[in-house]
Design goal:
This protein is mainly alpha-helical. It has helices at 8-28, 45-63, 79-97, 121-145, and strands at 107-111, 115-119. Helices cover 51% and strands 6% of the residues. A hairpin with a 3-residue loop joins strand 1 and strand 2 (115-119). It starts with 7 loop residues before the first helix and ends in a 19-residue tail after the last helix. The relative contact order is 0.17.
Length: 164
Amino acid sequence: MTQPALTANELIAWVEKTSTGWRNLLAAHPEVLALPCDIMKVESVAQLLQHIVAVELRFAERLSDLPATDYTSIPYDSVEKIYATHDHAFALVHKVLASNIDWDHPIEFSTRVMGPARSTPKTILFHLLLHSIRHYAQLATLARQQGIKPDWGMDYLLMNLEAV
């Protein structure tokens, strides 16, 4: 019996839908960037978004065998700059998906928190994608508490739900 599986492209579509929703909401409400935020011990929503896109970019670079961008050089002073980093990261992800990468062969890299590490490209890719979704869910709670409600459904179920 074949078990159901979620593909990388399906998960990427969910992350892109979620990111686009946030990009649009933040473009309409740029004041959200300045809201205080205690997620990840950052001071503002802008810094949380920097963290989200920094992880996307730095892990996409690792998968691409490129040097990791210095975290502190990743801009977070505008919605446009934050999502330009996201777009760059996902352009790299799409190139990796089109390549002949061995998804199960471990690679070595360095992390900001744990230092040197090793994992498979498959694990790194899925971490990159699920990490974003997790923090966007936290951001949704914070935004609602400040009276700004995202106007799109964020659950994966809504990616392929048909009313009957």
